[in-house]
């Protein structure tokens, strides 16, 4: 049995910028050539070109080198540079995602089946609970399209997700000290999962998803804190009751099930009112921008929470 060391993440207010920059300089040589040649650029290219982004943002995209070198993916280590440095041996192909639980047609989807969904580009803000943010051009498809294929039963109310467990390929899952209990788990209410903003991403910047960003398929829910965006998914289950979620289990007073971005509800150890947009500088209070309710997607999603106390149900 590994020793489970309770995680204690910190706000980016206290992230030493020098450390991040050193790591990044060190890793710069590894940042190229990360597309793993799954053929995504050719598969579905026509559909991708044809589909306009309905949520197009008028904000500068975070440079690709930052999106692929400053990551949270504890299966590869807890440092921001660890996922890019330690995920070279990870094999995202072949891959299957099992869909089970309260569905009429449970089945396994191979990577080819997943890449066959009409792909779209979606440029979304991503706001980590640690108070940093990015703007990322994802490639993916609505989770609703996948859910429809398996025909949810009337009793299904939630969707549970699980990340792969592969200690041989994921150094953060082996060794005596491990930062989290595996598999990493996340969940959504079924209506959140079906919302058109919610996508399964298979790429970014028009390329196959790099290992450190959750290859070959990860969840993106842009109005929620980044930890809801579970990576390298192998199982999706429809359930009647609220599924257990990794960070919520680890520290329930710090990370809620809903985890909707909310500048009015501070993390117990730091403010959530402002954020540091990666690539713009400003770790130490200069150049911070205001965090927006629902990460700027209130018009689209606030109605999902009508009548809910958003301070209590964080
Ligand atoms: N399996 C898994 N998924 C995960 C994480 C993780 O540690 N393991 N970290 C989460 C957190 S805290 C964030 S902010 C985002 C980061 O996504 P990115 O590295 O692609 O920017 O992934 C989320 N998904
Ligand atoms: Mo995060």
Automatic annotation (TrEMBL):
A molecular function (GO) term: oxidoreductase activity
Pfam family name, one: Oxidored_molyb
Modification note: Predicted to be exported by the Tat system. The position of the signal peptide cleavage has not been experimentally proven.
UniProt superkingdom: Bacteria
Oxidoreductase molybdopterin-binding domain sequence ranges: 91-247
Recorded catalytic activity of this chain's protein: L-methionyl-[protein] + a quinone + H2O = L-methionyl-(R)-S-oxide-[protein] + a quinol; L-methionyl-[protein] + a quinone + H2O = L-methionyl-(S)-S-oxide-[protein] + a quinol
EC category: oxidoreductase
Cofactor comment: Binds 1 Mo-molybdopterin (Mo-MPT) cofactor per subunit.
Record-listed E.C. numbers: 1.8.5.-
Cofactors that this protein relies on: Mo-molybdopterin
Keywords, alphabetical: Metal-binding, Molybdenum, Oxidoreductase, Periplasm, Signal
Key word Metal-binding present: yes
Amino-acid positions noted as binding Mo-molybdopterin in the UniProt annotation, renumbered to this chain: 71, 74-75, 128, 163, 213, 218, 229-231
Subunit: Heterodimer of a catalytic subunit (MsrP) and a heme-binding subunit (MsrQ).
Family: Belongs to the MsrP family.
Protein name: Protein-methionine-sulfoxide reductase catalytic subunit MsrP
The organism of origin for this protein: Sinorhizobium kostiense
GN (gene name): msrP
């Amino acid at each position: 049995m590994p020793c489970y060391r309770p995680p204690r993440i910190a706000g980016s207010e206290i992230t030493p910028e020098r450390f991040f920059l050193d790591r990044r300089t060190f890793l710069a040589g590894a940042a190229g050539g990360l597309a793993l040649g799954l053929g995504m650029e050719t598969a579905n290219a026509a559909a991708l070109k044809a589909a306009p982004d309905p949520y197009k943002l008028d904000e500068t995209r975070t440079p690709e080198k930052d999106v692929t070198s400053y990551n949270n993916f504890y299966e590869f280590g807890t440092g921001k540079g660890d996922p890019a440095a330690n995920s070279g041996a990870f094999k995202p192909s072949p891959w299957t995602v099992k869909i089970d639980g309260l569905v009429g047609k449970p089945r396994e989807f191979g990577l080819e089946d997943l890449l066959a969904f009409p792909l779209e580009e979606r440029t979304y803000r991503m706001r980590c609970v640690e108070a940093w943010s990015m703007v990322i051009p994802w490639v993916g498809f609505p989770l609703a399209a996948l859910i429809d294929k398996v025909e949810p039963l009337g009793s299904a109310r939630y969707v549970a997700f699980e990340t792969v467990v592969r200690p041989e390929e994921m150094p953060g899952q082996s060794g005596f000290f491990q930062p989290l209990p595996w598999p990493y788990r996340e969940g959504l209410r079924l209506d959140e999962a079906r919302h058109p903003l919610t996508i399964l991403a298979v790429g970014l910047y028009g390329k196959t998803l790099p290992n450190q960003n959750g290859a070959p398929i990860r969840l993106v829910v842009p109005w929620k804190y980044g930890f809801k965006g579970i990576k390298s998914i192998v199982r999706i289950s429809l359930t009647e009751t609220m599924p257990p979620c990794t960070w919520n289990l680890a520290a329930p007073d710090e990370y809620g099930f809903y985890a909707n971005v909310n500048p009015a509800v501070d993390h117990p150890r730091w403010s959530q009112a402002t954020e540091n947009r990666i690539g713009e500088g400003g770790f130490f209070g200069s150049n911070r921008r205001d965090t927006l309710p629902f990460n700027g997607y209130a018009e689209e999603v606030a109605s999902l929470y009508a009548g809910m106390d958003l301070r209590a149900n964080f």
